[in-house]
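Why do we care about 3D structure at all? Because function follows from shape, and shape follows, mostly, from sequence. That is the central idea of this module. The next example makes it concrete: a single protein chain, its amino acid sequence, and then its structure expressed as tokens.
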Amino acid sequence: MKTAIFNLSIGYKPEWEICQTSQREYCKKHNIDYIQLTESKVHFINCYFEKFECLQLLEEYDRVLCIDSDILINPNAENIFERYPDTDTLYAFHENVGGLDMNRDPWIETYSPKFKWPMFNGRKQYFNTGCILYSKIHSNLFNLIKGIKFTPKHFSIDGGEQTAINYIVTQNDWKFKSLDYSFNRMDLGAEDPNEDRLKANFIHYAGPCKYLSKGETKHTLITNDWEKLK
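And the structure:
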């Protein structure tokens, strides 16, 4: 089976270099191709939608993992393609799994108020797309997204592609399973005083990032985490 990791890297942030180094090393270790997009090709709504260029790879690859530039991969991380082998299933981290509760209900109701969403652990199903595993069966995703009627009253954009992907998956009843939290270890609103994140496979430094100490930058934090992991 031919696999690839796709990374969108338009622009520059110093902490990205460290994360991308970890991603390249992971690919080399597990015989996965690493493909990086550094310029716009999709040109749809905003730069976040450039991630859908990864779907073109499904013409050549059986499975593609789309991963954000601010994800650091632990050198001891297991092979995600082997851990999640089903090619009829879309895998991403559901934010209400295992007692974690981001409560995206207000967000969903704001941006897509007219649609009925499936429930998951007492909340509306909503997964994070910072790390999302596609197979050939998902190659038509972007065409379906382009068919959404994007208007303030029907479906508005929250700034990224995440809600649009969730919408397509839920409304078309695609088979979905959550990744384990260790494959998209975000802070989810909580600090990490014991550095439990370092036990994870993939560490995601998304958003304001509560892992940061006062006055610390993401670049410094990720640099120090990488040194501890190596």
